[in-house]
Specification:
Layout: H1 3-9, E1 12-15, E2 22-23, H2 30-43, H3 51-54, H4 59-69, H5 71-89, E3 93-94, H6 98-107, E4 112-119, H7 120-129, E5 138-142, H8 155-164, E6 171-175, H9 178-187, E7 190-194, H10 200-207, E8 211-213
Parallel strand pairs: 1-4, 1-6, 4-5, 6-7, 7-8
Antiparallel strand pairs: 2-3
Helix pairs in contact: 2-4, 2-5, 4-5, 5-7
């Protein structure tokens, strides 16, 4: 099934943020943020980190590790993470066609939610920066230091579906990672994999995406 066909049949659109809407860390590299979060752990007495965490360029790896250490560590790292995400929004680059898709979907009268592992403050800051707030019906994003609630858990998707007052079967989730596809399967939601980098087409297909697209541009025309 093609992405356009999946969208055309859907009553509600659930849209991942970092990737399908924008590149959050385009101006402030994710690796820099990961390093800053490691500094938080070091300052808290956790200097001897596993090699995988000590060298990871993904701030979510550091956050999830902090959550494994303890609740206090998770809170401190999440707070720093949220602040860095908001800082990054001013230099985030929009995904080509994303704003057009959001606005066209809103004009169609069907509900739309942002579903993201990024913090709610960062998502809100972006929507305000580009005057998209009125086109979004709900934001289902990170609001706490509980890493277990993030995708691939279906929690954020369940929350969005409930808030939009639709059923899972009427909804489609567009995301660019295998964890997005896994979360969609767990929530009973159709999924479109956004293959925005080399190799993602295969990975998203293997994860079980119902459709794959390598561009957001043009999807607004099927709303």
């Amino acid at each position: 099934m093609k992405a356009a066909e999946v969208l055309a049949r859907a009553r509600a659109l659930l849209l991942d943020f970092d990737g399908p809407v924008c590149s959050v860390f385009a101006g402030i590299p994710a690796s820099t943020v990961a390093s800053q979060l490691r500094d938080v752990l070091t300052d808290g007495g956790h200097a001897d980190l596993p090699e995988a965490i000590a060298t990871s360029a993904d701030p979510f790896d550091v956050f999830r590790y902090a959550a494994m250490i303890g609740q206090d560590e998770a809170r401190y790292v999440e707070a720093a993470f949220a602040a860095h995400e908001v800082e990054a929004i001013s230099s985030a680059t929009p995904a080509s066609g994303a704003h057009e898709l959001i606005e066209a979907w809103h004009r169609s009268g069907r509900p739309l939610a942002i579903v993201s592992n990024n913090g709610t403050p960062a998502v809100s800051a972006y929507l305000d920066l580009y005057n998209l707030r009125a086109s979004i019906d709900f934001i289902s994003a990170r609001t706490s230091s509980n890493a277990a609630l993030l995708k691939p858990s279906p929690h954020l998707l369940h929350q969005a579906v409930s808030a939009l007052d639709v059923t899972a079967g009427e909804s489609v989730f567009l995301g660019d990672s295998t964890t997005d596809i896994e979360a969609a399967h767990a929530a009973g939601v159709l999924s479109i994999g956004y293959a925005n980098k080399p190799g993602k087409n295969y990975k998203l297909t293997e994860a079980g995406a119902n459709a794959i697209t390598d561009t957001i541009t043009g999807l607004a025309t099927v709303t």
